[in-house]
Amino acid sequence: MDSKFSGPFGLKFGLDGVIGLVPFIGDFISNVISLYIVFCGMQLGCTPSTVLRMGLNILVENIADFIPALGNIFDFFWKSNNKNIEIIELHLREPTAATNKSRLVLGLVAFTLLSITISSIALTAYIFKTLIEWFALFTS
Q1: What is the pLDDT of residues 97-131, one digit of tens each?
Q2: Angle at CA of residue 105, ends 1 and 17, nearest 5°
Q3: What does the pLDDT average to over 9-14?
Q4: 38 Cβ neighbours under 8 A, 6+ residues apart
Q5: pLDDT digits (tens, 9 = 90+) for 57-105
Q6: pLDDT at 15 over 80
């Protein structure tokens, strides 16, 4: 789905990137195929953390698709289906390694999101504190 054809400069692309160029329907079809790959991983016994990591790959691709044109270009480089098939293959070869790597990736994502949230709260509190102090200077 992601790298069946060769383009200029040796760039590999597949039907996922081409189908994704069709508004709405293309993304729907791409998502159905991507979710089918995840479902196959579940059937093959992938652990929940591995399945979540596969879902994260699809989520990243879908978030990028919200940006017109750039999202379609991103599809040609991210290749979530290839990543997910590699994750399934790793799980079949070394289930423990696949699970550990997936837990690490999910942990890093959770840490990053938590850090962004805490930083946003701290920045917002600082801005409000500064505005209140600034406003107090002009009212007294």
Answers
A1: 999 999 999 999 999 999 999 999 999 999 999 99
A2: 20
A3: 61
A4: 51, 54, 55, 58, 84
A5: 999 988 988 887 788 778 777 888 889 999 999 999 999 999 999 999 9
A6: no
Task: Give the whole-angstrom CA distance, residue 55 versus residue 34.
Answer: 9
Q: What is the pLDDT of residue 7?
A: 59
Token digits of residue 118: 């805490």
* Cβ atoms of residues 1 and 81 within 8 Å: yes
Residue labelled with tokens 């040609």: 76
Contacts of 92 (CB under 8 A, 6+ apart): 44
- Overall domain count for the chain: 1
Residue 31 has pLDDT above 60, yes or no: yes
Q: Are 53 and 102 in contact (CB under 8 A)?
A: yes
* Rounded Cα gap, residues 103 and 6, in angstroms: 34
CA pair distance 83, 38, nearest whole angstrom: 11
Q: In 3D, which of 76, 32, 39, 72 has the Cα closest to residue 54?
A: 39
Question: Is this prediction's pTM over 0.85?
Answer: no
Q: Is 61 exposed, middle or buried (0-12, 13-18, 19+ CB in 10 A)?
A: buried
